Amino acid sequence: MKRLTLLIDADDTVLDFNGSEREAVIALCDTYGIADGEAIADEFKRINRAMWDKFELGQVTREEIFYTRFEILFEKFGIIGKDIVEVGDAYRENMAHSRRIIKGARAFLSRAYVNHDLYCVTNGITRTQKMRMAASGLGKYFKKLYISQEIDLAKPSKEFFEYVLSDIGDVDLSSTYIIGDSLSSDIQGGINSGIKT
Fold first, then answer.
1. Residues with catalytic function
2. Strand ranges (DSSP E) for 50-186?
3. Distances (CA, A) of 180 to 86, 104, 121, 142, 146
4. Distance between CA atoms of residues 187 and 51, nearest Å
């Protein structure tokens, strides 16, 4: 069997971002005494996704996402008197401790890493992603994590993938694949960089 280089996305590919996000927002509402956590979690998901889509297009910075999403959310629900920075930090702390993974991810990674070289490629937050990988037990399957905040480059840019491939070194593109859930980030990034998707 030919040894493959597999670049694997984190959120909603191996880590259950949607489930973790929902739990984190509902816990946040409980902590801050905000009613209707389920509805707020639904709306936060929509706002957060839209913000990350803008990030992938280079229209907002990662730091703008951290707090702007809560400003938009709280304005929509008429929530006042909450410190947006404190709430944003508490949300990321809740996310960092999540152990939720995608069904089948552990089984896939435990088999794949025996015969192939696995690298995580994510647009996430450095501390959050490292803690989630450790908490979930999935980090041990990856030779290295490439996190956009840490390397100051993001998917789908060609520069992100050039950095990753250069850092790995001696990569055969004919046996390199990217595996991910996002057409605009993972798959487009692979296409931009000549990586199989």
1. 9
2. 117-122, 144-147, 176-179
3. 32, 14, 9, 15, 14
4. 19
User: Which residues are 45's β-sheet partners?
Assistant: none
Q: What single letter denotes the amino acid at residue 1?
A: M
Q: In angstroms, rounded to a whole number, what is the distance separating the alpha carbons of residues 36 and 2? A: 52
**At which residue do the structure tokens 């993974």 appear?**
101
Residues 122 and 155: their CA atoms lie apart, in Å, by 8
Reported as type and span, the H/E element at residue 135 is helix 126-136
**pLDDT (tens digit, 0 to 9) for every residue of the chain, 197 residues total?**
789 999 999 999 999 999 999 999 999 999 999 999 999 999 999 999 999 999 888 899 988 998 999 999 999 999 999 999 999 999 999 999 999 999 999 999 999 999 999 999 999 899 999 999 999 999 999 999 999 999 999 999 999 999 999 999 999 999 999 999 999 999 999 999 999 99
Q: d(Cα 126, Cα 128) in Å, to the nearest integer?
A: 6
Contact, 13 vs 83, CB < 8 A? no
* CA–CA dist 57, 155 (Å, integer): 9
- CA–chain centroid gap for 104, Å, is 18
